[in-house]
Amino acid sequence: MQNQYHFALAAPEILLLILACAALLFDAFSKSETRHGTFVFSILATLALAVLSLFQWNAGLQGNSFGGLYVADSLSHFLKVLSCLAVMATLVYGREYAEARGMLSHGGEFYSLSLLALLGQFVMISAGSMLTVYLGVELMSFALYALVALRRDNVQATEAAMKYFVLGALASGVLLYGMSMIYGATGQLNLRLIAQVIGSGNAERLPLVFGVVFIVSGLAFKLTAAPFHMWTPDVYQGAPTSVTLIVGAAPKLAAFAITLRLLVEGLHGIALDWQPMLMILAVLSLAIGNLTAIVQSNFKRMLAYSTIGQMGFVFLGLLSGVGADGNNAGAYGASLFYVVIYVITTLVTFGLILLLSRRGFECEEISDLKGLNRRNPLMAAMLMLAMFSLAGIPPLAGFYAKLAVLQALVGNGHVAMAVVAVMFSLVGAFYYLRVVKVAYFDEPEIDHPPLAHGIVTRGLMSVNSLLIILLGILPGGLMALCVHVIENSLRFQ
Question: Is the pTM of this model over 0.70?
Answer without folding.
Answer: yes
